[in-house]
User: Fold this.
Amino acid sequence: MLMRGQARLIEALAAVIVIIVLLSMLPLLFKSPLTPLRSQVQVSVSQYAYNSLYTLVTNPLFINALSKGNWSVIHSLASAIIGPQYNWFIGLEPLYKALTISSYKVTRSYVALNITLVPSPSTYGGYALIDLPVLLINQGLPLSYRINTSVPMANVFMVDSSGKPVNWWLMSYNYVTGDALIWVNAKSSTLTIIVSRNGSVPYNPVLGQYCSNPYCPPYGGLSSFMANALNLPVTSYNNGVNVLTSQYSLNQYWWFNRYTVVCTGYYSLSSNVLTFNVPQSSSASCRLINPLNTGIYTTLIGQLISVIPGSTLSIGLNYLVTVYNGSSSYTASIPVVLSLTYYSDGTVNYSLYVNGQSVYSGNGQYVYLFMVNLQPAVSPGVCSNGYSLYFTLKELVDIYDYVSMTHKLISGLYQSQCLPLTYNGAASASITITGVTLTLSSPSQPGVNYAYNSTVKIYDLTTTPQATSAVVTGTYFNYAITSNVIPRNYAYSIPGLPFTPTAGAFTVITLPNGTYYLIALEIQEVSGG
Assistant:
């Protein structure tokens, strides 16, 4: 539940009143106004905005509606709370997509941005996944200092609050939006991004000199996917093991080599990239060697090179589900398989199986260069007999197409049979991954002979906790909401009315499932304020 002090804290961090520039089909950009808004003079209006926001987000109906995506309820609540003398706008976004950029320190060799990660990396054992809008950051930096975007983040170095170097790993970069998806390994929630004046290599403030190579490995580095895209040697620039693999953590990054995978059939391993090159009526399969249980959030980056119609790429995960009931527990091994079957008409069938049961089947367009995220959620339940327990496993799959920049979301639900556990009033459940298998198979088609093979490259594979962070500042520079989860017709009290905000308020809320959201409320005096 949001406390009034949190709203004040965020207000103090921003240090300015925020104005929204609303452009249809474009990101919403918050900037400090060049001239004072009426809300900066009429303090009561600004306070009214904060009071309205506080009343809204502390209403249990609001949290429930947000959790279920019931936007009409949120619209009704806002209409009941905010007086009819105001037109209003509500912006709501998962916090890991939102950004504030700190004021910076400029030296002759670099510019330093002080940032805070919310939630702290320590929440997930020292790991954070950050969606960093590089182009937006560059807009606010001095002209002589820019984060490299042609070789993304090649001139960036990171240190923690004590000045020690931080290992980070660029998983992917979107050249259209300018967003960088990076992992950091840091115990501190406060980091400093060092942007070198030299656009090609970072500046190491610990040694007081420029690094000799881009990314300054092993401190910074690239995924195999990004290294291949930039024609850089993977073995020199991929530092994923330094960032994500630890003997006693739930994080795992797999190099694809003979020490990490056991394969059969038509495959090759080169420069830490796994390639399936399967002729007609054949297959290839690789099982990853997994010494310990790992986290539950699986990310795979791959590329479809060529395909024989009817060929199937499968990602198999073996989950270990444990249900706890007092001092008793029950453990089950549950296989989950996501299959992509390609057809000659340019479509693909997505099939999801849990414990051998089909829980989803649907069609879509080919994805040639893709990132697949698989995320399970498990919860216990009480059987109808009133004394036995069962568990429900929900698998959420997000398939991102780098070419069209679109997401395909699918999900499936599996419920177990009643377990040999007698319910005693308190139960919980946990889940980890104990095995990963990748398979590509090409079918036999009588009377049709294909001269080419089905070829798929797998660049990177990680399993981690679902660690995400927002970048928050100590002082004002820019603020942005990149996309509003509330549909436009529910985000405004009067959708068709031209909107110029009189006052605004924003804060951060947390849902019961641990998801952080940025919420902004802007109000406009209908009388012409």
